[in-house]
Amino acid sequence: MAKLVNRLLLERLNLLQSFILLCILTLFAVLVMITLEFAWAEILRERFGEADWLLPSLVAAVLLTVAAGIVAMAVLFYRWKLKRPLTILMQASKKISANDLGFSISYDSRDEMGELIAVFENMRSQLEINLKALWRSVEERKQLNAIFAHDLRTPLSVLKGYAEFLATYVPEKKLSEEKILDLIHTMNLHIVRLENYAEAMSSIQKLEDTPVHRDPVDIIPFTALLNDSANQIASQFGINFASSIDNADSEISLDAHVVMQVFENLVANAARYATSQVNARFIIREASMDIAVTDDGPGFSNEALNKAALPFYRGDMWDATEHRGLGLYVCKVFCEIHGGSLQVENGPQGGGCVTASFGSQLINS
Fold this sequence. Notes:
The protein is α+β, with helices and mostly antiparallel strands. The protein has helices at 2-8, 15-48, 54-97, 112-169, 177-203, 219-236, 256-273, 302-307, 327-337; strands at residues 215-218, 240-246, 251-254, 277-284, 288-295, 341-346, 352-359, 361-364. Strands 2-4-5-7-6 form a five-stranded mixed sheet. A three-stranded antiparallel sheet has the order 1-3-8. α4 (112-169) runs antiparallel to α5. Mean pLDDT is 80; it is low at 316-325.
């Protein structure tokens, strides 16, 4: 009966209206009970006469009836209007305190408690959205830091190689002044790259935000610089490197630092899997520059062909200090922000083949 009254009446009323209704019902019930008590007292008076205990008993009964009515009204008001929403809010608060936001709450009532629970649910939903955004931001930043740490190794390794080369041959005076100046110029280029990395780490929140600055680049000296870095990388793995170029007498517009970063990642990845040889082919077209890097290793597995460009994918290789599964993912993102793409496949003669394409503009040929 109480549930029926609750559904049909009390759920449609706000708290004040419900309280007034319960007061009226309680007052009516108390008046009925007091009337019955007076009738009962009259019966007792007719039976026992004017007894001394009759009036005090009647007063006590009336006071108890009023007190019981007030208590009953309070209990009914709490059970019908407050208990369930307060329980819902308490349980939800405990879950939020435990950082558990994967739930929802609802309360089918038009009163203030229903509105409060609706507001609380909106707050929980917004907290969940904000917390997921925060987690995503933290993960993106962690991934970005890992990517920067990964890509800093290549220019550092190249600089280390040049420093060792100079330290070995300069004391013996086996290098001409022109060669020394050329090596210093190349080292300065890599130092500029390191400075750009350091600046980028403090300014971007995710890899896709890396700025692309296209400038005219002369292909012959640029590819020579790329080949020089590739030889340094390949020598660290005991691998030979060779390259070829199509349409060499060209000048194109592209971001040299982005292309260098992608190319060095491709060479490092190929050298890691190669048996003895890594090859690169530079293809200059009207609207793009393609770099195909191949190796004579076992090639990509079927799984790797689909997942090699995913972040932190290592395949069957595990090296916690050097190989973090980020190289091809970085290449893919940088190719895309440069208006190109990354293609992973196996070569016709075996071995892996990764082709990086960069959107560019052919200035002259």
